[in-house]
C-alpha cells in the first residue's frame, strides 16, 4: 500500500506547500467550471478564470510551456465566452444557442489547430524542450484544447469531442511529469465532458423536435 501511495504522490514530498495548495485550488475550480459547462451555465467562465490563472503560474514552473499557453488562452477565451454567453434577448433568453459546427467553423478550427501547434513548437524549440518526448504530446494537446475552447465560446456541441480527446491524452502526460493530482483531475474532467456532450446533445435534439 505504501509503495502504491509513493508511486502516486511520492513526488509531492519535494514540493512547496504553496504549490500543493495552489494546485488543489486550481483543481477545485477546474472541476466546478466543467460541471457548470456540462449544465450549459454561464458560471463556467468565472470559475474557469480562477483555475486558469493559477495553472498559468504552476505550469510555467513545471516547464510545460504548451499547457501554460493553453491556460493563458483559456483566460482570454473565458472572458470572450463569458461575454457571448451573457447576451440576452428582450425576453431574457440566451442569444447564443447550442448548435453544430458549420463548414466555416471547420475551416477556422483547422486553422486554429495548425497555428497553435506551430506556435507551441516554436516555443519548445526556443526553450530547447523538444529533447523530451512529452513535449510532442503537449504540443498536440495544445491544438486540441485551443479548438475545443473556441468552439465552447461559440456554444458548438463538438467542443466536447476536442476537450475529451485532450483530457484523455493529458492523463498520462501529467502522471509521467509527476503531477498526480492534475492527472486525476483530467480523468474526472473526461467523465464530466462525456456527460456534458450527452447533455448538450439531448438539448439539441429536443430543440430540433420543437422546431
TrEMBL record:
It is a multi-pass membrane protein. Its main location: membrane. It is found in: Cell membrane. The keyword Translocase does not apply. Belongs to the nicotinamide ribonucleoside (NR) uptake permease (TC 4.B.1) family. Required for nicotinamide riboside transport across the inner membrane. This is Nicotinamide riboside transporter PnuC. It comes from Flavobacterium arundinis. The lineage of its organism: Bacteria, Pseudomonadati, Bacteroidota, Flavobacteriia, Flavobacteriales.
Amino acid at each position: 500500500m505504501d509503495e502504491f501511495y509513493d508511486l502516486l504522490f511520492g513526488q509531492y514530498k519535494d514540493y512547496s506547500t504553496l504549490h500543493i495548495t495552489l494546485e488543489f485550488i486550481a483543481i477545485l475550480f477546474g472541476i466546478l467550471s466543467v460541471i457548470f459547462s456540462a449544465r450549459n451555465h454561464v458560471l463556467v467562465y468565472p470559475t474557469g478564470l480562477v483555475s486558469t490563472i493559477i495553472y498559468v503560474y504552476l505550469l510555467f514552473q513545471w516547464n510545460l510551456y504548451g499547457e501554460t499557453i493553453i491556460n493563458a488562452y483559456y483566460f482570454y477565451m473565458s472572458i470572450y465566452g463569458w461575454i457571448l454567453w451573457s447576451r440576452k434577448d428582450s425576453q431574457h433568453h440566451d442569444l447564443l444557442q447550442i448548435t453544430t459546427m458549420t463548414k466555416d467553423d471547420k475551416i477556422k478550427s483547422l486553422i486554429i489547430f495548425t497555428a497553435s501547434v506551430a506556435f507551441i513548437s516554436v516555443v519548445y524549440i526556443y526553450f530547447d524542450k523538444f529533447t523530451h518526448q512529452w513535449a510532442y504530446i503537449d504540443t498536440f494537446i495544445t491544438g486540441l484544447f485551443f479548438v475545443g475552447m473556441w468552439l465552447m465560446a461559440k456554444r458548438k456541441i463538438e467542443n466536447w469531442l476536442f476537450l475529451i480527446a485532450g483530457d484523455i491524452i493529458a492523463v498520462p502526460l501529467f502522471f509521467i511529469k509527476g503531477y498526480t493530482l492534475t492527472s486525476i483531475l483530467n480523468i474526472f474532467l473526461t467523465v464530466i465532458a462525456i456527460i456534458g456532450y450527452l447533455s448538450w446533445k439531448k438539448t439539441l435534439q429536443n430543440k430540433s423536435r420543437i422546431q
